[in-house]
Design a protein that fits this description.
Blueprint lengths: L2 H8 L7 E4 L5 H13 L3 E5 L14 H15 E2 L5 E7 L2 E8 L8 E2 L3 H5 L1 E4 L2 E4 L2 H11 L19 H8 L9 H4 L3 E4 L2 E4 L1 H7 L3 H4 L5 E6 L7 E7 L3 H15 L1 E6 L3 E6 L3 H14 L9 E5 L3 E7 L8 H5 L8 H9 L9 H11 L6 E5 L2 E7 L10 H13 L1 E3 H8 L3 H13 L3 E4 L9 E4 L4
Parallel strand pairs: 1-2, 11-15
Antiparallel strand pairs: 2-5, 3-6, 4-5, 7-8, 9-10, 11-12, 13-14, 15-16, 16-18, 17-18, 19-21, 20-21
Helix pairs in contact: 10-11, 11-14, 16-17
Length: about 450
């Protein structure tokens, strides 16, 4: 760590990956932070700084402190950790810094407390004892397994509604019995075919009996808080349908209407459709279904949308990571099926696509938070500027404004691009809520585009 890095760290609040300590007078608290960092997303521990004020007090004997923390970690934590520990000169004194990397041998725990009581995770700026479900997730992470890939041996493969699954895949491909194993909807366990958790969550018969919180609660509130509710629905359909139903509910309560011609009505969203869809799908695919007590929640207020799911970020990731496009899929079965169904374009691109869509629409950036043991994404209605577009997009919008409706081929000819390139641009403009697609479906040869304008 260089002096500039230390200066930047001192300007930050303690959080998921940063902890300040005045000294090692309370070694248990220090060790809990080290364990929590190793089990979650890693972190930096700086010794010689007041916890609350961030005042630099330094350490009197940095060599002794460096050796002491190295011995404490070595003697007190299992499995063995190898943090990077440095003596850091800072103005007229010294600090001791320890960088703890996310460990590959989770769960890490304090030996004297044992695995059950000595395993900690990092939640915000606090260290929490890992409960039973979190301990199992830590162990699965070490084995490179996901929760939804686990078998449900108490059920037979007949617990999967094959007819319903086939209907979802209709138009994509014919689903055969063997595909259930390829998609990991079912698996073999001790010689018996049984559903995986993911397969049962997606297409299980009577799935809410086993997973009573695997549904979406959607509400529209009056104003900016939850004191007055206008409308709400409980969406307990199979997940692909529940996603569409949640988006339909939001469309119902958040649209500005415009007329195109004399017979067609066009709805314009206050939020980019792509951002809303990605946020809802992200919540469903990345929820921690081992948690009990709350469903996925979609809440619409006058000024914002909040989409919240049970579960922190997958172990090893920070909010900064996912904003930069780093991805780790919590539920691989759900992710694979959603991608096959065309609901996910590319793993890991959803968050960046949301940010881009909001930025291009002139909206404030989305807010990503870990609150308790939940993940929340907020989209804001407030416009910070005019929607942005490059020169070609501007030409397309100008042509549509002048001529009313155009086909993909007409647009391609007007702007001098191939039909495929023009189609990709039109998809982006539709996602941003600037253009509407008019036709019976994506394969309609008479499909046309029209500009969305406010009434």
């Amino acid at each position: 760590m260089q002096s500039m890095q230390i200066k930047n760290l001192l300007q930050r609040q303690e959080g998921k990956t940063l902890e300040f300590k005045r000294d090692l007078s309370s070694p248990d608290k220090v060790l809990r932070s080290v364990v929590a960092f190793a089990n979650t997303a890693g972190g930096i521990l700086l010794i010689g700084i007041e916890d609350g004020t961030r005042a630099v007090v330094g350490v009197k004997d940095p060599l002794d402190e460096e050796e002491r923390i190295a011995n404490l970690i070595s003697d007190s934590i299992s499995p063995q950790l190898a943090p990077d520990i440095e003596i850091l000169p800072w103005r007229n004194t010294y600090l001791v810094g320890a960088r703890i990397h996310p460990g590959p041998s989770r769960p890490y725990f304090l030996r004297k407390l044992g695995k059950k009581k000595g395993t900690f995770i990092r939640v915000g700026s606090t260290n929490r004892i890992a409960d039973h479900n979190m301990l199992e997730e830590l162990q699965r992470t070490a084995r490179n397994e996901s929760y939804d890939e686990m078998p449900m041996p108490e059920l037979s493969s007949e617990a999967i509604d094959f007819r319903a699954a086939s209907e979802y895949f209709g138009g994509i491909r014919e689903l055969k019995s063997g595909d259930l194993e390829t998609l990991r909807l079912v698996t073999k366990y001790q010689g018996k075919r049984c559903p995986t958790i993911g397969g049962f969550l997606l297409f299980g018969k009577n799935r809410l009996k086993h997973f009573p919180d695997a549904w979406i609660q959607a509400g529209r509130f009056a104003g900016r808080d939850r004191s007055s509710i206008r409308d709400h629905v409980e969406l307990m359909d199979m997940m692909p349908t529940a996603v569409d139903s949640a988006i339909t509910f939001l469309r119902k309560h958040d649209e500005r209407r415009a007329d195109i011609g004399t017979i067609r009505r066009v709805d314009r969203w206050s939020y980019p459709p792509a951002a809303v869809r990605e946020a809802v799908i992200n919540a469903v695919v990345h929820a921690d279904y081992s948690q009990q007590g709350s469903p996925i929640r979609v809440s619409a207020f006058d000024d914002r949308l909040e989409i919240e799911n049970p579960g922190l970020l997958p172990l090893g990731l920070t909010i900064e990571d996912i904003q930069q496009g780093v991805s780790k899929l919590r539920n691989r079965v759900l992710g694979r099926v959603f991608r096959e169904l065309g609901l996910i374009e590319q793993w890991g691109s959803g968050i960046q696509r949301m940010f881009r869509a909001c930025r291009e629409a002139g909206l404030a950036e989305p807010l990503i938070e870990e609150i308790g043991l939940h993940f929340r994404l907020t989209l804001y209605r407030e416009r910070r500027g005019e929607p942005t577009q490059d020169q070609l997009d501007g030409q397309i919008l100008a042509f549509l404004r002048k001529q009313g409706e155009l086909s993909t081929k007409q647009i391609a000819n007007l702007i001098g691009l191939s039909s495929r390139a023009a189609r990709n641009r039109m998809i982006r403009l539709v996602e941003r809520g600037l253009v509407v697609e008019i036709g019976t479906g994506p394969k309609d040869p008479r499909r046309r585009y029209a500009l969305v304008t406010d009434r």
